[in-house]
Amino acid sequence: MDNNFQSMVIGSMPDEQQRISEVLEAGVEEPQVLLWQYDQAAVILGCSQRPDTGQLSRAENAGLPLVRRRSGGGAVLAGPWMLSVTVFIPPEHSLAKQNIIEIFSWLEAIWIDTLTACGVPCKGVDQAMIEQSKTVSQEKDLKWACYASLSHGEVVSLDGRKLVGLAQIRKRKGVALVSGLHLSPCDWQLLSSIVVDNPLRGESLADLNSDVQSLSGIAAEQLLPSLIHTFTTQINAAFE
Asked: Which of 61, 119, 150, 233 has the fewest C-beta atoms lying within 10 Å of its C-beta?
């Protein structure tokens, strides 16, 4: 499957969403991976979140695109501080027949091995952590944000702050597993300002999240090549 690993693309979030759609519409014949780093900031909403006039106006005033993705979940602020990795799986592959917990657990193990090998201390989540995160998200009125709570297969720092978020898109011609890894700190106040017109909510989001630069003590741009090499090696081995 080595030939199906593309070089990392530097581009916009709308272009990434279009690429994912094109791959799924054309049909996934064998496993492949799309690596993407955003060249500019943008706010992306889950497929069930419809932007209102206030959100559209605030995003325009901030000079940020506001788009919706085809997968579920909450709002995300993406930018150069995030690495997006999409794993495409053929519909007839055994992994594609697994339920969401099973297939996310498979990807979680690959991410933990990758991050640990690169000097980023991390761990997976369990049901108790998931339930607690939902309670916190509800109490702090953060349910609108993707990185406000945890779900199966996601990866956190050793003290429980979110590091890798996951989403999936299932279509007749293939499955896409989408990972969002924070390489360096995100501007959570900017996200909350646009989505809920309340920058203070960003302080709560900052407390719930971490990034590889902060956890490893290594600059994100220095660590990124090792992360990509290790991840692609790990996932190539998993498909062999």
From this structure: 61
Kindly report the pTM of this predicted structure. Answer: 0.91
Determine contact, residues 156/122, Cβ cutoff 8 Å. yes
CA distance 84 to 75: 15
Across the range 61-70, mean pLDDT stands at: 87
CATH number at residue 184: 3.30.930.10
Instruction: Say if CB 176 and CB 77 are below 8 A apart.
Output: no
Domain region containing 20 = 2-235
Give me the half-sphere count of Cα atoms (radius 13 Å) on the Cβ side of residue 181. 28
Note whether residue 25 is domain-resident: yes
What is the rounded distance in angstroms from the CA atom of residue 91 to the CA atom of residue 172? 7
Q: In whole angstroms, what is the distance from residue 51 CA to residue 64 CA?
A: 13
More confident residue, 185 or 69: 185
Number of domains within the chain: 1
Q: Is residue 240 part of a domain?
A: no
